[in-house]
């Protein structure tokens, strides 16, 4: 796929995000689009956001659970990028700013050192990580009914939309992140639960895999980046007036209210 086509698809997806409307998946028009093409579109999309003055907080991993990989019939997770305007502060976000959001509980890694693949291991990630923090990721596919193929969702920046970070910061080596139990509640009712091991066996493996995937493109993870490692719980549909709360054993609570 040529750069001009990729840039025009990226602009189309950005307009859907900005105008908060769902669109037909792009593989309807470009049925031959490959995963590689889709990452070129994503690169263009992030390039446009950077030109607009936004900044990258860090990459994120998606489709890291066996359930999601099976559902999408893939063997490897995908990545996208969290940008500064996606970080929710003040504990509230508005339904009217989004299309059809879902929420999932995750563990985020704050890197103290660069990590460069190939061959990165989970142990190396733990050594390079300053802190881990709890997070709620709000995904909001720009596609009708959250329906897409793998290239569609990669081009759409892996459905990235918003993130709420919790305030507990722990050294990653002070806990067994694979054993961290998590509950995700909406309006006081547990909607889903899981353990850190749902993320590729251990959330550090997710960061290692990300570093190795980026290395294929000559890219690396950078000190100071905050990385979402993937959903420990499933993604739960949101509606106005929901109060969302995740409890992560040893990592505290992270919560927000969804306004109209
Ligand atoms: O963060 C995620 O796992 C989302 C990846 C994209 C798939 C989806 O939108 O469900
Ligand atoms: Mg996620």
Fill in the keyword field for this structure.
260 residues, alpha+beta, Fumarylacetoacetate hydrolase, domain 2, 5-stranded antiparallel beta sheet, 25% helix, globular, binds hexanedioic acid, binds magnesium ion
Quick structural gist:
The chain is α+β, with helices and mostly antiparallel strands. The chain is built from six helices and twelve strands. The chain has a single domain, classed as Fumarylacetoacetate hydrolase, domain 2 (Alpha-Beta Complex), CATH 3.90.850.10.
Task: Describe what you observe in this structure.
The chain is of the alpha+beta class. The protein has a single domain (3-259), classed as Fumarylacetoacetase-like, C-terminal domain (Fumarylacetoacetate hydrolase, domain 2), CATH 3.90.850.10. The protein has helices at 3-18, 35-51, 66-72, 122-128, 150-155, 203-215; strands at residues 56-62, 78-83, 92-94, 102-111, 129-139, 160-165, 181-186, 189-195, 226-228, 236-237, 243-248, 252-259. The strands form three sheets. It has a five-stranded mixed beta sheet, with no helix packed on it. Strands 4, 5, 6, 9 and 10 form a five-stranded antiparallel beta sheet that branches. A two-stranded antiparallel ribbon has the order 1-2. Helix 1 (3-18) packs across helix 2 and helix 4 (122-128) packs across helix 6. The longest helix has 17 residues, at 35-51. It is globular, with a radius of gyration of 17 Å. The mean pLDDT is 97. The protein binds hexanedioic acid and magnesium ion. Magnesium ion (MG) is lined by residues 60, 62, 104, 106, 137, 139, 228, 230-231.
């Amino acid at each position: 796929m040529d750069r001009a086509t990729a840039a025009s698809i990226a602009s189309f997806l950005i307009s859907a995000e900005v105008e908060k409307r769902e669109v037909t998946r792009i593989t309807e028009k470009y049925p031959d689009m490959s995963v590689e093409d889709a990452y070129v579109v994503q690169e263009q999309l992030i390039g446009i956001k950077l030109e607009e003055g936004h900044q990258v907080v860090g990459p994120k991993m998606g489709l890291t659970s066996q359930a999601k990989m099976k559902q999408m019939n893939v063997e490897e997770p995908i990545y996208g990028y969290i940008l500064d305007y996606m970080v929710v502060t003040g504990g509230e976000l508005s339904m009217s700013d989004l299309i059809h959001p879902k929420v999932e509980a995750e563990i985020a890694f704050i890197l103290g050192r660069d990590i460069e693949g190939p061959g990165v291991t989970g142990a190396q990630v733990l050594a390079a990580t300053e802190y881990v923090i709890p997070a709620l990721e709000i995904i909001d596919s720009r596609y009708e009914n959250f329906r897409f193929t793998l290239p569609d969702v990669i081009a759409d920046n892996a459905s990235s939309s918003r993130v709420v970070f919790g305030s507990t910061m722990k050294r990653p080596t002070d806990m067994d992140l694979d054993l961290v139990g998590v509950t995700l509640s909406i309006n006081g009712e547990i909607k889903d639960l899981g353990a850190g091991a749902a993320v590729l066996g251990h959330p550090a493996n997710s960061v290692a895999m990300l570093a190795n995937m980026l290395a294929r493109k000559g890219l690396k993870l950078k000190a100071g980046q905050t990385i979402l490692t993937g959903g420990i719980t499933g993604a739960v549909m949101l509606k106005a007036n929901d109060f969302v709360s995740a409890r992560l054993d040893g990592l505290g609570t992270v919560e927000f209210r969804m306004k109209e």
